[in-house]
Write a structure and sequence with these properties.
- This protein is α/β, with parallel strands linked by helices.
- It has helices at residues 20-36, 53-58, 77-91, 102-115; strands at 6-10, 13-14, 17-18, 39-46, 63-68, 95-99, 119-123, 125-128, 135-141, 146-151, 157-161, 178-181.
- The chain contains 4 helices and 12 strands, in the order βββαβαβαβαββββββ.
- The radius of gyration is 18 Å and the shape is globular.
Length: 221
């Protein structure tokens, strides 16, 4: 029997705000939390993310776990993976949701491997079984011609959700929630790969990854 009372979202912050994919995860997590009666939690990592707590709460989180560490100022897979693993062990959630974006593709399988549980990859939807209360993850197979329903029998149940599978959660400033600081142990010795440079996209206007409508033409047209 699943005795855990938490559903955990692995959140991301860019340019001082939680990302669109994080808001999509909050939409999916909120549905699971309301169906199961569990607490919807989100872990926010960085060097100074306390100011983002209320934003996450207004988008549907019940509890925000703040993981502040100087080594988390910029994304580094080894350090972020260790921080997420420590948070997972500490909080013992029944479900973990991660976006299958660039970072999530790197983190989700490694997290599942370290914890020793299966991973439902590239999911378009998550629901709960009525009889068992376990999460069912739906993902396309056979080139998108069929949909597979996956149920993980081990806890935590981890699923990575494809970006744009859910609508981003709308902000409700009147929502109430809590925030707590979660301490993790990190060191430079954990770093196996170092980022030596970063090129920022300076394109103005609507970004392709956040556009609601994309119109394209080519030789086939």
């Amino acid at each position: 029997m699943d005795e855990s009372t938490k559903i955990l979202i692995i959140g991301e912050i860019e340019f001082g705000s939680i990302t669109q994919t994080t808001k999509e995860l909050l939409t999916a997590g909120r549905f699971l939390a309301d169906e199961s009666g569990k607490e919807l939690c989100i872990a926010l990592m960085g060097s100074d993310v306390k100011s983002n707590s209320q934003e996450a709460i207004s988008c549907g989180a019940d509890m925000v776990y703040i993981i502040n560490h100087s080594l988390l100022e910029k994304y580094q897979p080894d350090l972020y993976l260790s921080a997420i693993q420590q948070a997972s062990v500490n909080l013992n959630p029944s479900i973990i949701l991660i976006s299958r974006n660039t970072n999530g593709r790197e983190l989700a399988p490694r997290l599942a491997g370290r914890i020793g549980v299966p991973l439902a990859q590239d999911c378009l939807e998550v629901r709960l079984q009525k009889d068992s209360g376990r999460m069912v993850s739906y993902r396309p197979v056979h080139g998108g011609n069929a949909m597979a329903a996956i149920v993980c029998k081990s806890n935590p149940q981890i699923a990575s959700l494809r970006p744009k599978a859910y609508e981003p959660a709308e902000s409700d400033p009147s929502r109430a929630g809590e925030s707590k600081t979660l301490t993790v142990e990190l060191s430079e010795s954990m770093v196996k790969v170092k980022v030596i440079g970063r090129l920022e996209d300076t394109t103005e206007g609507v970004q392709l990854e956040t556009a609601r409508i994309v119109i394209a033409g080519g030789r086939g047209l």
